[in-house]
Amino acid sequence: MQAQPTRIADVDALRGCALFGILVVNIGAFATPWFGLGLTDPAFHGSVDRATHFLVALLFETKFYLLFSFLFGYSFTLQMQAAARAGAPFVPRMLRRQAGLWLIGALHAVFLFHGDILTTYALLGIVLLALHRCGERQALSLALILVAVCVAFWAGMAWLQSLQPAGDAADNAVAMARKVAAALAAYHATPAAVIAQHLRELSEIWIVLLLVQAPCALAMFLCGLAAGKREMLLHASDYLPLRRHLLWAGALAGLPGAAFYAWTSVYGDSQAWQVAGLAVGLASAPLLAGAYLALALALFERLRDGTLFALLADTGRMALSNYLLQSAICAVLFLAYGARLMGSVSPLGALALAVIIFGLQLPLSRWWLRGHAYGPVEWLLRALTIAAWPRWRRAAYL
After folding, report:
1. Distance from C-alpha of 125 to C-alpha of 372, rounded to nearest angstrom
2. What angle (nearest 5°) sits at the alpha carbon of residue 78, between those of residues 206 and 303?
3. What residues does 372 pair with on adjacent strands?
4. Which residues lie below 8 Å from residue 357, measured CB to CB, with a gap of 6+?
5. Pfam families recorded for this chain (predicted)?
6. Are residues 65 and 213 in contact, defined by beta-carbon separation less than 8 angstroms?
7. CA nearest to 286, candidates 111, 6, 69, 9
């Protein structure tokens, strides 16, 4: 009988890091209905509130979902290897996996969080499936083109926005304030009202997903695919020069671009500047995400035998379950499913809650994986992928 392949612990630990960054951003969307609108929440506009928002925008927004996207593309090559070991046709297997991921994401979007990324990943995964045979150079070139086109589009939108009369912008702000008030009332009302509000927002948010997240996520899928074909994370020490280049690129270009994005998001006095900041942020975010990757790998080499690395790896092993659990906890805290805290928690309070939630997920993941082979949602997705029931309990080894 063929032995089970050893998991790449660095991949799992990187997923754990990405989960924390995603939670820091997503909890902001639960905490205030003003999130992502380019307007300051009137209830939290003090210096500490703005500084916290600036910090989150600088270090987290638009970066960690790209890191997760890179890992999605890298894991695609691991799925290819798994199918080859099992002697199973790869394409039908992946189509089942993407269909299952889309269904899970759709349920997540309707009931818990309208900012779901899973449905986007599922659809883009089909595109990646069509491109998975392309060479590494082709994949990286296409990734660069996707980011460049996306950045150029938003730069053009910033220019068009600068031509808008000031009166129109003021009217838009008034209309936005009314919309936010209606959303807050719905999120505080009943669970049925929450679901209805999610459906309303999903009918509008697709344009943001299509024009912001999708191109950049696909670009990082392709970067991860190229890295996976070279097994870079399995032999990370062989790529020290590349990792140094990533750190320098992140420090010299990624961080200044992120600072411009954060400044225009928090302190910008016009929508044109905010859109221009978004364009710069989209251009620099992959560089900063690459620097995070390189920095994390360097830290892992020092922490590999420690408890923190093991906890991060366990949390990343069940990343899908933990991502959904984060949304479930936030939905209970902030929406009509539970405490209805939306609109009453400061940005600093939301950041503290994110740290607490993730801190609880670390030991919870370790506890679960002591007795189970997979996270609960990972088990379900694997069953759909291989069209068979995988083992539920963790095998005991002597």
Report:
1. 27
2. 95
3. 393
4. 23, 27, 326, 329, 330
5. DUF418 (PF04235)
6. yes
7. 69
Helices 214-229 & 118-131 angle (0-180, nearest 10): 50
pLDDT digits (tens, 9 = 90+) for 233-291: 999 999 999 999 999 999 999 999 999 999 999 998 788 899 999 999 999 999 999 99
d(CA 68, CA 25): 13
Which of 91, 12, 13, 93 minimizes the C-alpha distance to 382? 93
3-state secondary structure of 206: helix
Neighbouring-strand partners of residue 261: none
Q: Are 246 and 184 in contact (CB under 8 A)?
A: no
Alpha-carbon distance 238 to 241, whole Å?
A: 8
**89: which DSSP letter?**
-
Q: Look up residue 171 and give its two tokens.
A: 């009217």
Per-residue pLDDT reduced to its tens digit, 168-192: 666 676 778 888 999 999 999 999 9
Q: Residue 66 in contact with residue 216, Cβ under 8 Å?
A: yes
Q: How many CB atoms are located within 10 Å of the residue 325 CB?
A: 20
d(CA 185, CA 336): 10
